[in-house]
Specification:
Blueprint (H helix, E strand, L loop, with lengths): L19 E7 L4 E6 L5 E5 L2 H5 L10 H16 L16
Antiparallel strand pairs: 1-2, 2-3
């Protein structure tokens, strides 16, 4: 007869203990941070109430501020420049 083997899932690492901040995005009255954990996972953190109310869930935490920051980060990576900052004086945009 076959013997059953125990099935164990690894525990999630601590949220801020071993994370590196990749970027910080500021909005009107909210701050969103992009973290890289030791396991090379990307994690987003927001300081809004709806994000904090979600608690620790199986699904990734999300809010509209993180969605905006993710869109801004994608644009920055595609265009290789900061989005949302004023252009330097004397610079011309190509037509």
């Amino acid at each position: 007869m076959l013997r059953l083997m125990p099935f164990r899932l690894p525990k999630r690492s601590a949220r801020r203990g071993d994370a590196t901040v990749l970027g910080t995005y500021f909005f009107a009255n909210r701050t969103v941070q992009v973290l890289c954990t030791s396991g090379e996972h990307i994690e987003w953190i927001c300081d809004c109430e709806s994000f904090r109310r979600q608690g620790r869930c199986e699904t990734p935490l999300w809010c509209k501020h993180i969605a905006k920051a993710a869109a801004r980060r994608s644009l920055e990576r595609l265009t290789a420049r900061r989005v949302g900052l004023p252009a330097p004086a004397g610079s011309l945009m190509p037509r």
